[in-house]
């Protein structure tokens, strides 16, 4: 990535609770923050055509996807009074029940984090070029449609 402010948002496999805990703990020393809001996207065991989802395999062209995540991040900072924001998305296979998306926003005020988090998650779901293949218990698979 050429823009050093652009971050790699991708984590191989599921996003662990320890990773999430560590991210939250790092913010305790930032005394200009008055509110945090967190979104955790979890892989559901949906039933589709009488087959149960066992996992989702996430794929993307990472350079293009990181650029889009960076654009979404910058647009969010322009619209909301945020102190910081972190976005992490899984790549590879994530089993049902595991976390695949972690978005963490912070602001001096609580109302900003509620509005900003909803905005950024909706932008990610509608614009980020990340694709999921649903893997069923019988090992068959199909491309996921975001809803």
Defining key terms:
147 residues; alpha+beta; elongated; single chain; 3 helices; Aldehyde Oxidoreductase, domain 3
Q: Quaternary arrangement of the chains shown?
A: single chain
Any idea of the CATH topology?
A: Aldehyde Oxidoreductase, domain 3
- How can the largest sheet be summarized? 8 strands, mixed
CATH superfamily: Molybdopterin biosynthesis MoaE subunit
Q: From the alpha-carbon coordinates, what is the Rg to the nearest angstrom?
A: 16 Å
Helix/strand/pairing category: alpha+beta
Q: List how many beta strands DSSP finds.
A: 8
The CATH architecture is: Alpha-Beta Complex
The fraction of residues assigned to DSSP E strands is 35-45%
Tally of individual helices: 3
In N-to-C order, the SSE pattern is: EHEEEHEEHEE
Residues in helices, as a percent range: 25-40%
How many domains? The number is 1
* Residue windows where pLDDT falls under 50 for at least 5 positions: none
Give the mean pLDDT: 93
- Quick one: overall form? elongated
**CATH level-1 class:** Alpha Beta
Distance between the termini: 30 Å
Task: List the SSEs and their pairings.
Layout: E1 10-12, H1 17-25, E2 35-42, E3 47-48, E4 51-59, H2 62-79, E5 84-95, E6 99-107, H3 110-127, E7 131-136, E8 141-143
Helix pairs in contact: 2-3
């Amino acid at each position: 990535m050429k823009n050093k402010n652009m971050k790699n948002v991708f984590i191989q496999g599921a996003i662990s609770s320890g990773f999430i805990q560590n991210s939250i703990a790092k913010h305790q020393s930032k005394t200009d923050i008055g509110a945090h809001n967190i979104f955790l996207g979890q892989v559901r065991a949906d039933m589709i055509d009488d087959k149960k989802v066992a996992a989702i395999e996430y794929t993307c062209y990472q350079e293009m996807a990181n650029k889009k995540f960076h654009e979404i991040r910058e647009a969010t900072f322009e619209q909301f009074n945020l102190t910081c924001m972190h976005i992490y998305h899984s790549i590879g296979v994530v089993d049902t029940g595991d976390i695949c998306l972690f978005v963490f926003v912070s602001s001096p005020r609580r109302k900003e984090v509620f509005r900003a988090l909803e905005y950024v998650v909706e932008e990610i779901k509608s614009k980020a070029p990340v694709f999921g293949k649903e893997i069923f218990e019988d090992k068959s698979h199909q491309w996921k449609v975001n809803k």
